[in-house]
Amino acid sequence: MRNRDTKLRISFNSPVILTFTILCFLAMLLNNITEGASNTAFFSVYRSPLLSLQTYIRFFGHVIGHAGWEHLFGNIMLILVVGPLLEEKYGSANLLFVILATALATGLVHFIFFPRIMLLGASGVVFALILLSSITCVGEGEIPLTFILVAAIYIGQQIYEGLFVHDNISNLTHILGGIVGASLGFVMNRNRMSDY
After folding, report:
1. Residue 153 pLDDT > 90, yes or no?
2. Is the Cα dihedral 18, 84, 189, 195 positive or negative?
């Protein structure tokens, strides 16, 4: 039975997701203060000299930067909904690895193949978490039907939009994020099953 004097307190329940969210908000504030200079310097990826330290910071930092508040809120809402459940299931270290691997994979591909276009935003991370969440109930020798449906609908939509919708959204980043999330999810689930 609960003590009546027990006070409710706010818990920092998902350290990786909450820290990532705070960093995104701080980067957005800094971008507004610097009138876009901080996004160009640290929070977007594009072709730049390999001898520059900033190039390597941008390989990871681009997932923290956003083009505007609407862009930020759209990504962060999904991350805050899906992320804490995944962090609880897989652990903070594993979820941090998923975020960093997604950032590096999308950053490198963009750096190599789209040298004159700046990429920024957490949408690759969002789609990594979405695909990761769809395989959380994987069993030995099984692939969940929900994963197949999410992957087919999601990848199909991204291919369609990439071919026929001309906007500033990097559909390739979404697809790469999904591939990273799904791949690491299968590996983490297999490792968890082998521990039992």
Report:
1. no
2. positive
